[in-house]
Amino acid sequence: MDSLGQKLHEIIKRSTKIEDGAPTRYHLKQNAVEEFEQYRTMTYGKRDSNKPHKTILMVGETGIGKTKLINVMINYVLGVQRKDKVWFEITDDQNDPTSAQSKTSIITVYGFYLQESPIHLTIIDTPGYGDVHAENEKVIARSLLKLIHSAETIHQLDAVCLVIKASQNRLSDQQIYIFDAVQSLFGKDIAEKIVLVLTHSRGAIPTNALTAVKEAKIKCAVDDKNQPVYFLFENSQSDSADELDQTMENLWNLSFNGMAEFFESLDKPKSMQMTRDTLVQRKELEEIILKIKSIIQQINTETQESNQNKEQVEYKFNFEHESEVPFKEMVDIDPAIASVAMCCTVCQENCHLGCWWVSGLSWCSVMKNNYCTVCTNKCHYTKHVKGAKKYLTKAKKEQMTKENSKKYYSKTVDCVSKIKNLEELQELKVQKMKLVIDAFHHVRALEMIALNTDSLITLQHVDFLIDELKEIKEPEKAETLGNIKKRAGEEKNKVLEYMKRCIK
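Request: output the structure for the sequence above.
Response:
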């Protein structure tokens, strides 16, 4: 038995037979399997720091052949040849509906560290994109961010394999969304590490698939002719076949030659830092958008209650009665809540509570072109004061006649209708304004660092933020976001509308 045969024999002893045939299929036994909230790790062997190591991330649609491709990598680095009539697998059978793992939507990290392998691999297998739903890509984004921050310390990548079918001749709206979502996960510096891996190939140049990728503006590594870098693979290596079957021999060679070219292309790994920053910015943007929408709901509820109170007061003021009349009084601020506040002396409202102070009121964050964006009358900053006091609404009893009711009503009904919620409403508006500005800056930050600067994931929030920016008198910022939408182009905006319909 030669050295290669001895090596394979040792691996077989540590494996479980799946199926007899030519080749006989074996599943390698794991040293450890760990389940985490958003990802799992499956380790084979013990990592040797003296051996070359590559970290590869796999992304693609469900059913595209990603699982078999991972097994091709394993057999290639182990030096398996067709004449050996063996085939090793490390993946679960994702096509088995009874498999518990086939139902998972978390990332799987394969640590392939067998001593018989001349190179060690960390393969990050992302869940397949199947449905057009924003929640799917959010799950993957959250899992990838969690993984980067984990104890496994995935600090760098040697390649991102974008797996598609070689027979692809055009990209549907669904596929454009999928590829767009994939690219939105990464920082700009990862583009040179994204390569196309074309499965189900018969060896022909995939002209149609490459054209479809270019037309969809998929960002990836390019060669010296500015063409996408790609590798061809076939998916039937584990299928049992006659040893003299020349077709199967050719397909085997096609895949293993493609794998040789793939590994030869891996040079210096790329840090995951910018990708981590991109994922953090995206996560924070999503959280801010949810907070803004929650506050809008609260404001709408408060406003509705205020209008109901106003109607009750208007009815009550048509009769003689004794009523509690509201009035405003400056009181000390509770230090446990805040130390300072900015108040409008005209509207008698608290415009900015618990904020930090700059040299002049005109520079306060609630001021726009020297006018307040919060108080009812949008007063000039000179009508405001700052200090350790705030306005508090109180009430006193007063006899109301039909005559003075109407006179009094014209001045105070609005205030009466908001006795309980005026301060809360103003504070909600201030919170919303700050969050809208924060969301805008997150979008701008993603423009600077994200590989996909006008991703559909960002575009789905643009119209909403444009309206909110206009409402708080920020037309320049609204125009900036409008330009992002224009830059995305008609095709991507069409896909965005398609995605919105699917989500509904």
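The chain has three domains: 3-271, 273-316+420-504, 321-400.
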